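Hey Z.,

So I finally got round to the iron/sulfur cluster thing we talked about over coffee. Here's the setup:
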Amino acid sequence: MTIDCASSLPVVVSNSVCTQCGCVCDDIGLVIENGRITAANNACDKGREWFLGNHEEGDEFAFVEGKPAPLTEAIDRAAQILLKARYPLIFGLSDTPCEAQRQAVALADRVGACLDTTTSISHGAFGMAFQEVGEVTCSLGEVKNRADLVFFWGTDPATTHPRHGERYSLEAKGLFTPNGRSDRFVVVVDVDETSTAKKADLFLQIKKGSDFEALWGLRALVKGLATRDDIGAQTGIPLEVLKALAERMKSCHFGILFFGPGLSASRGRHMNAEAALGLVKDLNDYTRFYAKPMTGPGNVTGADNVVCWQTGYPLGVHFGQGFPRFNPGEFTALDVLGRGEADAVMLVAIDPAEHLPVAARKFLGSVPSIHLSDNPKAEGNDRATVLFLTATYGIRAAGTVYRMDDVSLPLRPVLATKRPTDEEVLVAIERRVHALQVESGMKPSSSSKRAR
Ligand code: SF4
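And the result:
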């Protein structure tokens, strides 16, 4: 339901979807008055700030060289930039629906671009681990209804996913967990005593950079094998505690291991995640145990899924030779920008200030750039060669997003907009590129001209 902005009577829209973290809460009650959201019931502070802070100002939504331009002119200029470039980079995609992400992949394929998502600078290591060892997984609904042992390893959802505990993993009451929190034993493993650690039944303070050793030691103990005697000194967790933990894991009815940036951003990176996934796989010889990464904000899980199903790889994909090639470190955005390889950059639904280091942001200003953004104040938008101000997904644009457990949810826009959606802009650019290729007698896919 899109609300008539002229209406001054408060309208309540129930079951709206918040996309500000991987929980993707779909029980938000929005109150709309005079074309603005004035209340977001059930939302946490983070979600409320996003809903109540959404305003669209001005009627202009397409800009070329900083000046308002007709949409067709901006589309044409964007297409020309991408066609002319020998190493275009398309980056971002985590704050837009799957439909737009799919179009970004199609555009990258058409122009032979390097395509990367914000996953590469957050939990990219997990995607690499899944490719190596797979994932024993479940939905958050199963966690809510069944989990009697909950692990948080290197993650602090009380800060990053504020309603995770209330909806799924701590206080939530389910079919086989009718008493909520008292039906669960909660373990937190982290280098510091986080907000989540304060709510745990057991907090294990691990030495920085020793996650792999602790996880591998647990794998041995679960299988009844010996592990190093000095594992306590190495990890900060005494051997006896690890032994008791292994027994607890084997004897639970339904265990879940949530893991986060503590594993992906510390020594070992994807090997840490592989160790966690291997531990969970081993535990299934004794009981039901699952693993789930705590993914970042927005529709980053959607980006992982879309890029995987379209290219076979989760991130860092290059179409320069006419087929997708995957090589993290070579085709990931930070590396491409850091080495100054890209000669044109398209940013889709990303604020560089939140995701990129200063050096990469500086480089952005030195090449032609195309930005698709719902926030005119996002860093670098004023310097973009072509800027499209697009409709905010979930509030003003429809589409599909993925929750952190890979469950897809439809978005229902509640406010009207004059702006195009990310998907519409990407489709128009891709069509214009195709038309220009046909006009110039170039092959419909130009990727073969760039032997990168
Ligand atoms: S927990 Fe996450 S998805 Fe839910 S309301 Fe808060 S920010 Fe939004």
